[in-house]
Write a structure and sequence with these properties.
Blueprint (H helix, E strand, L loop, with lengths): L20 H14 L10 H29 L7 E5 L8 H9 L2 H10 L4 H6 L10 H15 L4 E6 L7 E5 L2 E5 L12 E12 L2 E6 L5 E6 L2 E13 L6 E11 L5 H5 L3 H13 L14 H25 L7 H4 E6 L5 H13 L4 H11 E4 L10 E3 H7 L1 H21 L4 H7 L2 E2 L5 E3 H8 L2 E4 L2 H9 L3 H6 L4 E3 L6 H7 L2 H11 L7 H4 L10 H26 L8 E6 L8 H17 L8 E6 L7 H19 L7 E5 L5 H7 L5 E4 L11 H7 L3 E4 L5 H8 L5 E2 L4 H9 L4 H6 L2 H12 L11 H9 L5 H20 L1 H13 L6 H13 L47
Parallel strand pairs: 1-2, 1-10, 2-9, 10-11, 11-15, 15-16, 17-18, 17-20, 18-19, 20-21, 21-22
Antiparallel strand pairs: 3-4, 5-8, 6-7, 8-9, 12-14, 13-14
Bound molecules: pyridoxal-5'-phosphate (PLP).
């Protein structure tokens, strides 16, 4: 099924409205009238939000079509598009970010206020699209925004889940999951494209025959065909005019009405069929969910890569190019192995449907695909039961077998007689029940493989992907993750951004890689420090207010805000943090007059619904909170808060208020982390082990400005291989023993000795993540944190130096590296050709410059004083 028309893309018209507040006010009224169809007196807050969003979207659609025109009229060698394939995109709320990136915040605020509306209330109306579990989906969102900012032609392909990640409520201290009905009030950001739709086959069997030229031709006779329809959401770049597209596929029945079934009186069977078709994009699976939903998840993955690849081929051919040059049009990045079936699917499309020879198709496929690995946890490496895959995707399995046969023949040539190596490299795991190993498929079918932090890439080469590294060393790259400073600083922490602008001038948000380092010169400046602390204090007061309103706990904004916000997982070691809280509590109980630096411990994060230990850790946190928060001996010096429903919206609220960032995963387990980057970028100091990107953060901010504890990855490895016995560590440490005994004895569970038994048993008998081994080092390090926090001036200096060192962790830097090392794309749309809508008709205010900012030539220097600092 192809699109109805071949796009005539020129002359798309002019801007519908200008960007002055008067023009925007008119646009909002028009949308209230013509889009929402509401008389003014009956307009709800949601109507105002929708009308505002549509007004902003108009501006973006214009930029988008302009981007497209420039793309089409630029030289052919620039016609390369980055396709970012990801089963998750955790975009966060759109409105605020689009206002920042388009430079429209002030004019929209003014327009709304003239209409009697408050921008903050309108912003709060947006339900965020929670189409991701955590870091991986959020990374995809940051990368789309950076590609738009850098004007790299880019499409993010994914699934339009009707229900995203569940909403989390806390009932009686336990996590309760609620369905996330994010579309119920309408989604003003997406454009449905009924003309962009593709058919996807499932089940059935294949038939082998020869075509008239005598070539083998395979037909896949499916049991079922499902249609994917595109929904496009524009993603605005920061003040560059560039727009990327997020194209999400919704599954639908091919024909919504099966006449034959209807005539036979089986109307409900026809409806059933429709329901089944629509199930594929119904719900996002929480990760770590064992077993159940396997079948649907497999269907989801194939569904979205098939639609995306058919769409890419359609576009490539519509440019008038031959199929054999496909890899000149697209650089396909797969975000973890979830889209790795795309490798086999592209082979199928090229060989079965476009009739290329296998070798030619294989060259194109390898040139097109690149694979980002995201995990070192071997249990998290995706593999599909072969019988399941063979029944759902018979043709794909045949192609995987053929890829494997040819690949293993090559390996045998290189390593004759090395059967063990061949068994490890095989795309099929045959050690017991048979599985298809998706990481192996991704490695074989890609020209580039990257890890997401230096340590992670190093460990990939040494462990998880060692055999592939020996085979293809030239394929391996490291590209350390990054986050966008627009959402994670300008939007979430506007006052800090303003203060930084007072030192760096405007324009630094598109060049933090070089610009932030200039803050080093201001780190010792007392006046600047005071302003810095004042901003942090205001952010803490704002968070304290939300905590009071939502959770009913009173916290002291003068206390140290100690923050651990991320998915709940044993390897991330939230329970190590809890052991520290109990240790401090015991110090107070031993001596209520003890000198304790007041702290507010803030936790947030979802546990996968089927991950019982993670859910028990949440219950432990809330149980310890109940005891500590109300104990008169504590006298309010310690407070423990579990902030429910961690998502992007809540993250933007918590991150700017953090003093201390807990990045305490056991060394060698966290691939990179991006929460660590967001928190440091907002002036939190990190307490962390040498894991993931923590190592590089510490190098950048200086080791004297980072609280390091714990074993290194190699030490952790050798401790475990040497027969680690957690019970020895427990018995040898009195404070640790006391804390664990209290959990076991029911001190935090009203005497219930059963409740936390699985957790205690696990720690004493297995402790896979070395909580007990790292305990003392962590406590000692926390004591240093407490002491450091008492010296406000020194703390402010360290906080400023942390932000000054964060330039490297911009997603702009990461995208530039992907472009240079992997995509080999020079396809950055020439800014001089750009007719940027924002360059006309703006009502400029201080800090709201909408022009294009060239990257300033600033050299990063640790020694020279910044001339910009007074
Ligand atoms: C950044 C982010 C994450 C990732 O946090 P890590 O600390 O890197 O695990 C997860 N969820 C949300 C909502 C985020 O914003």
């Amino acid at each position: 099924m192809a699109r109805a028309t071949k796009n005539g893309c020129n002359n798309h018209g002019t801007m519908r409205t200008g960007q002055s507040s008067v023009e925007i006010q008119q646009s909002i009224l028009n949308h209230l009238h013509y889009t929402q169809a509401k008389p003014l007196p009956f307009a709800t807050r949601n109507d105002w939000y929708m009308a505002t969003a549509h007004s902003v979207r108009d501006q973006m659609l214009h930029n988008w079509l302009t981007t497209f025109d420039i793309f089409m009229s630029s030289p052919r060698e620039k016609h390369k598009i980055v396709s970012y394939l990801s089963s998750e995109f955790l975009m966060g709320p759109h409105l605020g970010n689009n206002l920042v990136n388009l430079g429209l915040s002030e004019s929209v605020r003014k327009a709304l206020s003239a209409l009697g509306q408050d921008l903050e209330a309108i912003l709060a109306q947006e339900v965020e699209p929670g189409l991701g579990n955590g870091g991986l989906g959020r990374l995809a969102a940051c990368y789309l925004e950076s590609m738009a900012t850098l004007r790299v032609p880019a499409v993010g392909f994914g699934i339009r889940y009707e229900f995203g990640i569940f909403d989390q409520e806390i009932h009686n201290g336990w996590q309760v999951e609620k369905g996330d009905n994010w579309l119920k009030n309408g989604n003003p950001w997406e454009v449905r494209r009924p003309d962009i739709a593709y058919e996807v086959k499932f089940g059935g069997h294949t038939e082998f025959a020869h075509d008239p030229e005598g070539r083998l031709a395979v037909r896949w006779i499916p049991e079922k065909v499902i249609k994917g329809v595109a929904y496009d959401t524009p993603v605005a770049g920061y003040r560059s005019g560039g727009v990327a597209v997020l194209r999400l596929w919704k599954s639908e029945a091919v024909a919504s009405f099966d006449f034959q079934a209807f005539n036979a009186g089986e109307y409900y069977k026809a409806v059933d069929d429709k329901v089944l078709s629509e199930t594929i994009s119904k719900v996002l699976y929480p990760n770590d969910e064992p077993g159940i939903g396997k079948f649907l998840r497999l269907c989801q993955q194939y569904f979205f890569v098939s639609c995306s690849l058919q769409d890419m081929i359609w576009f490539h051919l519509s440019l008038g190019r031959g199929i054999e040059s496909f890899s000149e049009s697209f650089a396909i990045q797969i975000n973890d192995t979830h889209p790795s079936m795309g490798i086999a699917e592209l082979m199928r499309l090229l060989v079965d449907e476009h009739h290329l020879e296998w070798d030619e198709a294989w060259r194109i496929t390898r040139e097109s695909f690149a694979y980002t690995n995201h995990t070192l946890l071997s249990e998290a490496l995706e593999k599909w039961p072969l019988p399941l895959m063979a029944s759902v995707l018979p043709r794909i399995v045949e192609i995987i077998f053929e890829i494997n046969r040819r690949f293993l023949d090559e390996v045998r040539g290189l390593f004759p007689e090395d059967d063990q190596r061949i068994a490890r490299l095989s795309l099929i795991d045959e050690t017991g029940e048979k599985y298809v190993r998706m990481a192996n498929l991704a490695c074989v079918g890609s020209h580039a493989i990257n890890g997401v932090a230096a340590l992670h890439t190093d460990l990939l080469k040494k462990t998880v992907l060692h055999d592939f590294y020996e085979l293809f060393p030239e394929k391996f790259h490291n590209i350390t993750n990054g986050v966008t400073p627009r959402r994670w600083l300008a939007l979430s922490n506007p006052e800090l951004a303003k203060l930084i602008s007072s030192k760096l001038g405007e324009g630094w948000l598109s060049s933090i890689e070089t610009a932030l380092a200039w803050l080093q010169g201001a780190a010792k400046n007392t006046t600047f420090q005071q302003k810095w602390l004042k901003v942090k204090q205001a952010n803490k007061i704002a968070l304290a207010k939300v905590i009071r309103e939502r959770i009913g706990i009173e916290v002291d904004p003068a206390s140290l805000f100690d923050v651990q916000v991320k998915r709940i997982h044993e390897y991330k070691r939230q329970h190590l943090n809890v052991l520290h809280i109990i240790t401090l509590y015991n110090r107070i109980k031993r001596d209520p007059t003890a000198d304790i630096t007041p702290r507010t411990f803030i936790f947030a994060g979802k546990a996968a619904p089927g991950y019982h230990m993670a859910k028990l850790i949440i219950k432990l946190i809330t149980s310890v909170a109940d005891v500590v928060n109300t104990d008169p001996d504590v006298a309010g010096r310690l407070k423990v808060v579990f902030f429910p429903d961690f998502n992007v919206t809540n993250s933007q609220l918590i991150v700017p208020a953090a003093d201390l960032s807990e990045q305490i995963s056991v060394a060698g387990k966290e691939a990179s982390g991006t929460g660590n980057m967001k928190l440091a970028l907002n002036g939190a100091l990190t307490i962390g082990a040498l894991d993931g990107a923590n190592i590089e953060i510490r190098e950048e901010v200086g080791k004297e400005n980072f609280f390091l504890f714990g074993l290194e990855a190699a030490e952790a490895q050798s401790l475990k291989s040497g027969g680690y016995n957690p019970r020895c560590w427990y018995e040898g440490n009195e404070q640790l023993r006391q804390a664990i005994d209290q959990i076991d004895a029911g001190t935090f569970s009203n005497g219930d000795r059963q409740l936390f038994r699985p957790l205690v048993d696990n720690l004493l008998n297995r402790d896979e993540y070395l909580v007990l081994a790292d305990y003392q080092s962590y406590i000692d390090c926390q004591d240093l944190v407490s002491a450091a926090y008492c010296d406000k001036k020194k703390w402010a200096e360290m906080s400023i130096l942390n932000v000054a060192g964060m330039g490297k962790f911009s997603s702009d830097r990461a995208i530039r590296e992907y472009g240079e090392k992997i995509w080999k794309t020079t396809a950055i749309i020439d800014p001089t050709k750009y007719v940027y809508a924002g360059s006309k008709g703006r009502d400029s205010k201080k800090g709201e410059d909408t022009g294009i900012h060239p990257t300033p030539r600033i050299r990063r220097s640790k020694t020279t004083e910044s001339p910009l600092v007074s």
